[in-house]
Amino acid sequence: MKKALITGITGQDGSYLAELLLEKGYEVYGIMRRKSTLDYGNIDHLIGAEHLHLIYADMTDFVSLVNAMRESDADEVYNLAAQSFVATSWEQPLATAEIDAVGVTNMLEAIKLVKPSCRFYQASTSEMFGLVQEIPQKETTPFYPRSPYGVAKLYGHWITKNYRESYNMYACSGILFNHESERRGKEFVTRKITDAAARIAAGKQDCLELGNMEAKRDWGHSKDYVRAMWLMLQQDTPDDYVVATGETRMVREFVDAAFEALDIALEWHGEGADEYATNKANGKTVVKVNPKFFRPAEVELLLGDPTKAEKELGWEREIDFKELVTRMVLADKERVSHE
Ligand code: NAP
Ligand code: G4F
Q1: Residues with CB under 6 A from ligand 1
Q2: How far apart are CA 21 and CA 117, in angstroms?
Q3: What is the average pLDDT across 310-325?
């Protein structure tokens, strides 16, 4: 029975990965942070599973990661823990760097010390492309991060490559483009939209306020993307891979699709900070721009080329854009109906 250690197991990706590895017969260990109230986040439904073990640890505490390696004796480590919200990285740049950058070195050092044969996956991100130097972005595209988050993640990416080259460790990075799900945090734009659309349709909210409507993202489903993480650790040699859908859409298009899934057609008016959308059926304003959600520096366009992952890993996504939006909207509609 293989043993895996997942950092960030309570998050969106950590929960889907834990399910995947349990299905595959792994003994799954996850690290979680101590909180003032007990909160298992996205793995609440897995608590009590026979092959799931939780260990208290923190990415900023090297000793706790050494302990986690000793206790799990992991064959594979998936490093998903991060301060993952880009907007917060301007408010907490140092915490973001400690967790998302130095934390990766802490984990790699713990592996090197306890079990250097353990395979390592690093959750790299399309945010490292930032001010994009090439369209679409692939493994060879130069990086140009645009936020403290992107800069910290770029360190994590390079230190992973460096440990692979310096110590011959099986360490690789997945450069994952945006992936969402019913378990996405409500501060991220997709979930903020699907939650608000469901509430507006139910008469529980009047209007949704957003920032940059023109930003373009390559959106997939988390469940598809965690499969790529696992595949990366099953190869003969470690390497880095872009994981994306190869399609990009504006925030405004996501808004349209979410309301459409609830049979609400929108009409758009104005532009920039004055843009808003009305419900065609009754003329009410249901979406408007609020400049407080604009970022100090924006990533305007992300579009990934997943060819290498498709060819070398045999990875394929199963959930398309329409299904992603529909799943998220319907899950929020169901939840809102019980509020
Ligand atoms: P998420 O839902 O925000 O989950 C982040 C996880 O990290 C949570 O379990 C969180 O624990 C944990 N964490 C945060 N700080 C920690 C610390 N100091 N010590 C230990 N654990 C800590 O993020 P996600 O969407 O699943 O993303 C997973 C990873 O992929 C992240 O590294 C993210 O940066 C990266 N990524 C995500 C995307 C995407 O579109 N989703 C794309 C590319 C890369 P709590 O529950 O205690 O907060
Ligand atoms: O949903 P977002 O906050 O995701 P963002 O910044 O792309 O980051 C996510 O994807 C990265 C991969 O590329 C991950 F590494 C990262 O951890 C995270 O999962 O914002 C998406 C876009 C941005 O351009 C933002 O400016 O939506 C725009 N946006 C417009 N209005 C908004 C809003 N974003 C948020 N969160 N809230 C708004 O009201």
Answers
A1: 7-8, 10-14, 31, 33, 41, 58-60, 80-84, 99, 123, 125, 176, 178-179, 185
A2: 19
A3: 98
Residue whose C-alpha is closest to residue 78's, from 230, 277, 292? 230
Tell me the CA–centroid distance for residue 281 and ligand 2, in Å. Answer: 30
Q: Is 217 helix (H, G, I), strand (E, B) or coil?
A: strand
What was the pLDDT predicted at 294? Answer: 98
Q: Ligand 1: distance of its center to the CA of 67 in Å?
A: 21
CB 138 within 8 A of CB 189: no
pLDDT of 50-90, one tens digit each? 999 999 999 999 999 999 999 999 999 999 999 999 999 99
The strand pair at 171-176 and 241-243 is best described as parallel
User: For 268-304, how does the pLDDT look when each residue is reduced to its tens digit (9 = 90+)?
Assistant: 999 999 999 999 999 999 999 999 999 999 999 999 9
Residue 145 is predicted with a pLDDT of 98
- Smallest CA-to-CA distance from 120 within 150, 82, 164, 154 is with 164
Report how far residue 21's alpha carbon sits from residue 13's, in angstroms, rounded to the nearest whole number: 12
**pLDDT for 237:** 98
Going from the Cα of 86 to the center of ligand 2, the distance in angstroms, rounded, reads 7
Is 194 in the active site? Answer: no
The CA-atom distances, in angstroms, between 130 and each of 146, 153, 191, 307 are 5, 12, 22, 20
